[in-house]
């Protein structure tokens, strides 16, 4: 698309709401463009997510942007998500800039970062546009969050600064999609409206002919076309951005092959992070994954997983308040398998000393592993490799907590990845380990044996292939259900001149 010395074309995918489908449409466009031989990069100026990954350049970025890069067939890097906010509570977030944490901020103090972060975002986008043929940008939340418009760097603030045409995505499955699209446009000031070039209806089920009159009316009301109606398809997206996108179930488990299911309960804490670790389990035939927030929901589980956490001490206190700590400890005493990953591994320790994340000092852990945790000021970001069960494992690490194991403990702990195992309790700081097929099958076999289950993993399950197939399905959605010619013209030429302003289009004059 772009030639030597030319700034690559780009567009912004915005949404009427969070979880409207921005990530999916962005990934689909990246996949479709890559199939056309276009060297394309994803970009999200500012992301708020507890699901992150360590890119090959050593930076921490949003997991969704890493998977959009996979859809594009390119390596993820810091420029693709220059600002990442990782909530640690209801009012504060860790601010990660170009892959490195620079501090904590609440909603008010974050304003002081805005001008610097705006410059970082624009520089990162310019870097991508200089190195790729095209860039597909994803917005954050909704551009109609008018109380945040002045400092916006992710939606119309970015579009205005970089002169990006904007596609507005709406989720019809929620209902009210026409009102959401028209209302979003109408709440924007005229200069912002001038960049909204078209709409995409997402998650449509039903007869297209019944929808057509509404699409025509929306075009007549706004002067903008609907450039795509994407049908509802189950199980398309792994790597979601935050726990708001989680249902009670992560999704339908793969159908049993052996006739015996392995039941996995994942404790869903308020600040759960990197729960994408379980995605590879959900595609394993015969593994039934469910989330749990109460002790009785652990009953009958063959394996309980304590996943990552952005606030280990606070989430452990939440577990104690619900009796989940006692339920997990009782399982361990009875030899029922428990796995802790990163923050969950830290919870299994005897003591947790935290003057960094919570400032709580030293608090007792669950005491299920002979370990002690001390939080360090500097965050560990790494892409380790190792072996377990005779299988190669590639993973990534993102944590402040440093775990020390007492290898002389009478309970005879054994090494497990970078952590340890004692009896039927395992712990590791490594994220993404289950994506290694051989390791995953070996671990699940060990768990089934310890749990007394007849389950055995089916040979040949390939998580990378399953993920690639889902990304291909997103590319197919774009190819089959979007006006790709119109999208390419927008990227090359920008938003058409003279798009009408939809009232009110600005503040009410009194």
UniProtKB/TrEMBL annotation:
Pathway: Cofactor biosynthesis; adenosylcobalamin biosynthesis. Keywords: Cobalamin biosynthesis, Glutamine amidotransferase, Ligase. Residues 263-438 form the CobB/CobQ-like glutamine amidotransferase domain. It comes from the Bacteria. InterPro entries: Class_I_gatase-like (IPR029062), CobQ/CobB/MinD/ParA_Nub-bd_dom (IPR002586), CobQ_GATase1 (IPR033949), CobQ_N (IPR047045), CobQ_synth (IPR004459), GATase_3 (IPR011698), P-loop_NTPase (IPR027417). SUPFAM superfamilies: Class I glutamine amidotransferase-like, P-loop containing nucleoside triphosphate hydrolases. The keyword Ligase applies. One of its GO terms (molecular function) is ABC-type vitamin B12 transporter activity. Residues 12-236 form the CobQ/CobB/MinD/ParA nucleotide binding domain. One of its GO terms (biological process) is cobalamin biosynthetic process. Catalyzes amidations at positions B, D, E, and G on adenosylcobyrinic A,C-diamide. NH(2) groups are provided by glutamine, and one molecule of ATP is hydrogenolyzed for each amidation. Belongs to the CobB/CobQ family. CobQ subfamily. This is Cobyric acid synthase. It comes from Nocardiopsis composta.
